[in-house]
Design brief:
This protein is α/β, with parallel strands linked by helices. The chain is about 35% helix and about 15% strand. It has helices at about 50-65, 85-100, 115-125, 140-145, 155-165, 185-195, 235-255, 260-270, 315-320, 325-335, 340, 345-350, 375-395, 405-410, and strands spanning about 10-15, 70-75, 105-110, 130-135, 170-175, 200-205, 210, 230, 260, 285-290, 295, 310, 360, 365-370. The chain has a 6-stranded parallel β-sheet. Strand 13 (about 360) and strand 14 (about 365-370) form a beta hairpin. The longest helix has 23 residues, at about 375-395.
Length: about 400
């Protein structure tokens, strides 16, 4: 196993200011149930909030642990905006206190239903990047993204986006691809283009249902062959078809104008650069998450007891994020790949995908295959000629957007 010297990689830890507390009850949410790790018979929602003292401890450690002049704070939920604006203003004040000349940036992920003029002004005044969870047109979005009372949420999100646009707030779209909407990539894409969303992340949802004694019902990768695939999960075929259809539209019309995370990361791997998404990198482990009480876990998708690294009150962020356990977690992404993956011609592009989805078996019955492998392989096979062309353009210091002209000239 490779080892890393302290601070050899950037340290990145996502913050959960309200843990899993949320005003929505999205059916496919992987985080809503995490309060079962901490709840007691008399627990109240207010108990699942990050205290100001813990916020200051985190901020000081986080900034002072960085090796780069820019520091990114990422706020995630649950629903982050269930904390008052005063909390985030206090967070900014603390960041300024410890910045010591560094550039501090903030991004926040929200379901978009609580955005007001006041919030939008706050984001604009402080130059925050806002990620908005939006599953496309109303029919697709409201299928699974519903309120605690079962009501739809799409109209509230759309209202929130209009307010963000009014104040010129920079926002990105994050859409979950599931069994219900996975057959409609063009509806998705045209919807986001009409909204003016130039940065789009499509995330495939894959989960297994496994009941636990504490009330949790999702399986971790450590529970390898337990549980059943959740009915909302996108299928491997759906995922491949979705990405291929999306790519064919994008590569002919929108290269250099619309940025789709998986396509950008695929091109990065094609030219030998670091991809912008951890799931497609050779190793991982540099991006952890801190819960409201200071517990730090290996990854946002690995908030399970077996992946807890410690607590910030007893260990420093550096001790936890550069620990042997976390180094092994990151290196295992490559080391535990089955033979089929290591012999695959697209290993350089895929790198096995996210470890959380590696609960399938290979054609030789070896464990550790990504559940979505079939879809990923078909996608890479389809895009290879276009990626080869764009790679050549980049290597010759020409814009990869030239691929659109090349396609037209060759009637591809």
């Amino acid at each position: 196993m490779a080892t890393y010297a302290p601070f050899a990689k950037p340290l990145y830890v996502m913050l959960k200011p309200v843990s899993s507390i949320c005003n929505l009850r999205c059916k496919y949410c992987y985080y809503l149930e995490k309060n079962n790790l901490y709840k007691t018979p008399d627990s109240k929602a207010s108990q699942f909030t990050l205290s100001e003292s813990l916020l200051e401890e985190f901020t000081e450690q986080y900034i002072n642990s960085q090796t780069q002049p820019q520091v990114l704070f990422t706020w995630h939920g649950g629903e982050t905006m269930m904390r008052p604006m005063s909390f985030y203003q206090h967070a900014i004040d603390i960041q300024k206190k410890y910045a010591n000349g560094r550039q501090i940036d903030n991004s926040i992920q929200t379901n978009g239903t609580l955005i007001t003029e006041e919030w939008a002004k706050f984001f604009a005044d402080n130059n925050w990047l806002v990620g908005v969870s939006l599953d496309g047109p109303q029919e697709f979005h409201d299928e699974y993204r519903r309120s605690a009372s079962g009501g739809p949420s799409w109209n509230k999100v759309m209202k929130g986006l209009k307010i963000l646009d009014k104040y010129n707030v920079q926002w990105n779209a994050m859409a979950v691809v599931n069994d219900f909407n996975g057959d409609y990539p063009m509806d998705f894409y045209h919807f986001f283009k009409d909204l003016g969303a130039h940065y789009i992340q499509f995330a495939p949802i894959v989960e297994r249902i496994l009941e636990h004694d504490d009330g949790r019902h999702l399986a971790s990768i450590a529970e390898f062959e337990k549980g059943e695939i959740a009915d909302f999960s996108v299928s491997p075929k759906q995922w491949g078809d979705f990405m291929i259809a999306l790519f064919d539209e994008w590569v002919r019309n929108d290269v250099g104008e619309y940025y789709i995370q998986f396509f950008d990361s695929t091109l990065a791997n094609w030219v030998g650069e670091q991809p912008g998404v951890c799931t497609m990198a050779k190793t991982c482990g540099h991006a952890g998450v801190m819960e409201f009480n200071g517990d730090v876990y290996s990854c946002d998708h690995f908030v399970f007891p077996e992946y807890k690294l410690g607590n910030i009150r007893t260990k420093t962020l550096s001790q936890m994020m550069y620990s042997p356990e976390q180094q092994k977690f990151g290196q295992d992404k490559f080391d535990t790949l089955p033979k089929q993956c290591k012999e695959c011609k697209y290993l350089f592009a895929c790198n096995g995908g996210c470890p959380k989805d590696r609960f399938a078996r290979t054609k030789d019955n070896e464990p550790g295959l990504n559940y979505l492998c079939e879809g990923w392989y078909r996608f890479f096979d389809h895009v290879a000629p276009y990626m080869d062309f764009m790679k050549n353009e980049l290597q010759n210091k020409r814009p990869p957007a030239n691929v659109m002209k090349w396609i037209k000239e060759n009637n591809l």
